[in-house]
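Below is a typical protein record.
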Amino acid sequence: LIMHLSFSKFLQSNFPHKSVLSLSNAIVGASVLSMPYCFQECGIILATLLMITCAIITSYSCKILIASAQATHSTTYEYLGLRAM
């Protein structure tokens, strides 16, 4: 509870990346709630394999985004999307 209150005070400040932290908090919160259900339904071996597979796919996607940004000299995700079209 103390950490939650201090984090909410941090989000209420004029921090420039407030929306990024808020979105990250929402994503992590949702995954923490759904993870036990996933392990219960799939079993520990299959759920672990699925998590590893998702981590590999996410890592590969990030590498593609970085390579694309470097190839097009894009500094923002928006500009990268415009250059891709």
Observations:
- The helical segments are 2-12, 18-42, 44-72, 77-84.
- The longest helix spans residues 44-72.
- The chain has a mean pLDDT of 81.
- The chain has two domains: 1-36, 43-85.
